[in-house]
Design a protein that fits this description.
The protein is an alpha+beta fold. The protein has 16 helices and 18 strands. The two termini are about 15 Å apart.
């Protein structure tokens, strides 16, 4: 099938034959002495500077032209004069080169009268032809869907997009640095798994042809990381791609990146201190401040004491009855409707106790939290993998950090009693029979590891995508994922 081409594309394709007579339009390499970011801070008069990048702006004049080139971290101006590069080269530049093309240039650093650090080009090389023109200079790529589908153009044209994804790379580097310096070892656990476990979520399923068995894609790395603890790792972590076959909104994607760490001999209070240290250090590393702005709200992570809310006590206050005493989902719905909090229609999609409680919490409590807040003391029915509180087995030793109504992390003292864990898995099976399709399987392999013996453990997990969305002030999680999944545009 012949692809339809615009007039500009046809003109650029037509230039290839002329370029091939002059040079290879797609050479194999170019030796640089400096990145653009580094070249911009050189002193005037430095010679022999070799830089390269994509042309994003050109002002072609008679015997003098200016070009701006860009890479992911910076940009720089080039001055190209006919009496410096020669008539033949200058003619080639003016007639055959376009914005979007790649160029390598060698010359001397100087500063223009307007204060612009510039390379006075002695010689240049053509490094690659762009057959498609860039978007119009002053508007760039503004269509949101096209930004996601053509992220490469978005990166070329939009400074804020480059800032976000450079920040994401720096975030990864900081995670590895921080955890490594604190004694954590990185491991990898399977993405293809045989049991749905580690979170309350709908999985993706696939079939393993060689072994002729059905598998699910990982929804969380939790149970395998705990098996590492059972095997002798004191502190362990993973940066894990996870998959949950659920709805899409501004805070959720089916494919996302989760960081989970686990430490032997810690409880959840130790993890609270550790997470505070992590997030504060991260913000200082990225921004030099512990205050950020998210969608018009200033958030201060530097406060000595973050707000703390007891989940169970707060939900008792909201419900005006002890919801922990209710074991029947229908009875719980009836009490909630009677209090006028929600209608039966609003609760219809939620079948089990955990689903109903979680829905009400997110709507009535979490949505109203702005400043960094620690929510702790969760109902045991919500998380079957968490340690039961010594004073009340209906409560688990869990905390989350909430900011602007968004969950930044979840952590708990881990359940290491295999008998209690089996009972919790069996309760999950009962919830599944009630219609809850986000329950965990009874994972016998994980129970075997637990029966081998585990020390006290506390683990914490957070989504990199959601954290990025908050700290880089982006309205949607898709704005911090390089290539978010999109509906097939051909259908």
């Amino acid at each position: 099938m012949i692809k339809d081409r615009s007039e500009q594309e046809l003109v650029r394709i037509g230039k290839l034959d002329v370029i091939r007579e002059y040079c290879n339009p797609y050479p194999d390499r170019y030796e640089r002495t400096h990145s653009l970011k580094d070249a911009r801070v050189l002193e005037d008069g430095v010679t022999g500077v070799r830089i390269a990048g994509r042309i994003v702006f050109m002002r072609k004049m008679g015997k003098l032209s200016f070009v701006r080139i860009r890479d992911i971290e910076g940009d720089m101006q080039l001055e190209i004069k006919i009496d410096m590069v020669g008539e033949k080269a200058y003619d080639f530049f003016k007639k055959q080169m376009d914005t979007g093309d790649f160029i390598g240039a060698e010359g001397e650093i100087f500063t223009t009268q307007t204060g612009e650090k510039t390379l006075r080009v002695k010689v240049f090389e053509f490094l690659g032809k762009a057959l498609r023109p860039l978007p119009e200079k002053f508007h760039g790529l503004t269509d949101v869907e096209m930004k996601y589908r053509q992220r490469y153009v978005d990166l070329i044209m939009n400074e804020d997009t480059r800032r976000v994804f450079l920040g994401r790379s720096k975030l990864y580097a900081y995670i590895h640095k921080f955890l490594g310096e604190n004694g954590f070892l990185e491991v990898e656990t399977p993405i293809l798994q045989n049991a749905v476990c580690g979170a309350s979520a709908k999985p993706f399923y696939t079939h393993h042809n060689a072994l002729d068995m059905d598998c699910n894609l990982r929804i969380a790395p939790e149970t395998y990381l705990k098996q590492c603890i059972a095997g002798g790792f004191d502190k362990v972590y993973e940066v894990a791609k996870c998959f949950r076959n659920e709805g899409m909104d501004s805070e959720h994607l089916q494919e996302f990146t989760q960081v989970e760490w686990y430490a032997s001999y810690w409880n959840f209070e130790d993890n609270i201190k550790f997470y505070k240290s992590f997030i504060r250090g991260l913000l200082m590393e990225l921004f030099g401040t512990m205050q950020i702005e998210y969608q018009g709200t200033v958030i201060d992570f530097g406060k000595e004491n973050w707000n703390r809310i007891n989940y169970v006590e707060e939900m008792r206050r909201v419900f005006e009855f002890d919801f922990l005493e209710v074991s029947d989902p229908l009875e719980l719905k009836e009490k909630i409707v009677k209090k006028g909090l929600f209608s039966y229609e609003e609760l219809d999609d939620y079948k089990s106790l955990s689903q109903i409680i979680d829905f009400c919490y997110k709507k009535l409590v979490r949505a109203n939290i702005v400043e960094p807040t620690i929510i702790y003391n969760y109902p045991a029915v919500l998380i079957p993998l968490a340690r039961r509180n010594d004073k009340d087995k209906r409560i688990i030793d869990v905390f989350q950090v909430i900011v602007c109504g968004t969950e930044l992390c979840k952590a708990y003292s881990e359940l290491v009693d295999p008998m209690v864990q089996r009972e919790a898995f069996e309760e999950q099976l009962k919830a599944r029979l009630q219609g809850d399709d986000e329950t965990m399987d009874l994972d016998e392999s994980f129970l075997d590891a637990m029966e081998q013996g585990m020390p006290p453990i506390s683990g914490l997990g957070f989504g990199i995508d959601r954290l990025m969305m908050i700290i880089f002030n982006q309205p949607s999680i898709r704005d911090v994922v390089l290539f978010p999944q999109m509906k097939n545009s051909n259908k």
